[in-house]
Design brief:
By secondary structure, the protein is of the alpha+beta class. 22% of the residues lie in helices and 30% in strands. It has one domain: Jelly Rolls (Sandwich), CATH 2.60.120.620. The chain contains four helices and 15 strands. The strands form three sheets. A nine-stranded antiparallel beta sheet has the order 1-2-3-12-8-15-6-5-4, with helices on one face. The protein has a four-stranded antiparallel beta sheet with strand order 7-13-10-11, with no helix packed on it. Strands 9-14 form a two-stranded antiparallel ribbon. A hairpin with a 4-residue loop joins strand 10 (175-177) and strand 11 (182-184). The protein is globular. The two termini are 20 Å apart.
């Protein structure tokens, strides 16, 4: 697995070099190799490609029911109002959330290692695992996950996202990509993956997405973001 990580670290860094010198769109290899299934931690994770460029995939059986419940219970007493990239509270994002600390517990480390293997980027490139909670009416309006050129974090920008659904939502709460015509209903244990490391910024812009308002029930998700370089 370490050899795979080293290869994909080279791939990501090589793409960065190509971006610096490129002035036209070129074909790029996705970070995650496209397969119908992935064998990780003695489980088979099945995959469905929803869009090829930018790559958007739906994974099933990423987390067990017990793991979903454990993440919810570990986070529930630590939630605060979610904020935007510049740490401001906004009606654009009305959920509550928290971050787990690095190496917080063996359980969190095991989950983050599985995520890193699935996303094909070393865990050292990841932010802390974030848990989000949405009550009825709460949402995250259309946005991009990567940072704009004037944000300090753009020097080591995000390159990919994995959203893991920790419960079934009775109604609403879909993750939608309005420019791609994609809507994904939260399903317990499943995950949504997408990349935005491309040379052509027009492709990255297609990853505009939103968390639609929850209509009935509540919504719990865990989100992992990967960066181009170690954090």
């Amino acid at each position: 697995m370490e050899a795979i990580f080293l290869f994909y670290r080279y791939l990501v860094e090589n793409v960065r070099i190509r971006i610096v010198g490129a002035d036209s769109m070129i074909s790029e290899i996705s970070i995650v190799p496209i397969q119908s299934s992935y064998s990780l931690d003695n489980r088979i994770i099945t995959a469905t490609v929803l869009n090829e460029e930018p790559l958007v995939m739906k994974f099933d059986q990423v987390l067990s029911d017990d793991e979903c419940q454990a993440l919810i219970e570990s986070a529930s007493s630590r939630l605060t109002r979610s904020k935007l990239a510049y740490k401001e509270v906004s009606q654009i994002r009305t959920s509550s959330s928290m971050f787990f600390d690095a190496n917080e517990s063996p359980f969190i480390v095991a989950i983050e290692n599985r995520i890193a293997s699935l996303m094909h980027v070393p865990r050292s490139h990841s932010e802390g695992l974030q848990i989000l909670h949405y009550e009825p009416g709460q949402e995250f309006k259309p946005h991009h996950d990567y940072f704009g050129p004037h944000h300090p974090s753009s020097r080591n920008n995000r390159i990919s996202t994995l959203i893991m659904y920790l419960n079934d939502v009775e109604e609403g709460g879909e993750t939608t990509f309005p420019r791609l015509g994609i809507a994904v209903k939260p399903t317990k244990g499943s995950a949504l993956y997408f990349e935005y490391f491309y040379d052509d910024p027009r492709i990255n812009e297609l990853t505009l997405h939103s968390g639609e308002p929850v209509i009935q029930g509540v919504k719990w998700v865990a989100t992992q973001w990967m960066h181009r370089q170690p954090i």
